[in-house]
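Hi everyone,

Forwarding the result from last night's run.
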Amino acid sequence: MNPSGAALKMPLSLLDHSPFRSFFIPGLILLLFNGVLSLAVLVPVLRNASNAGLWVGFQGCVIFGWITVQVIMIRGLNWLHFLYWAVGLVLMGCGGVMRREARAAVVVEVVSTRH
């Protein structure tokens, strides 16, 4: 809401080593990739779609990548970075498990239709 970062007490100097001069574009990217994408991933998960695990894993990669780029650009670490890296890794792991279970369900279905 305030691209200067003042509302969150984030100085613009955090962006000194980035291509950005305000928090507007990074905030917009964050909204799209971590906000809107999360809601979009919710749809295949709720529908129990066969590709839901792929989307969950992808969301984990996006979060992990976002935090990695953020740390590189601001040249600093905070305990929250580690927390969100962990969230990204957990989502990637959950996505992998979901994909494996979806493949196993297909195999079971194919085997059961043959009998």
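The helical segments are 24-46, 52-74, 79-114.

Cheers,
N.
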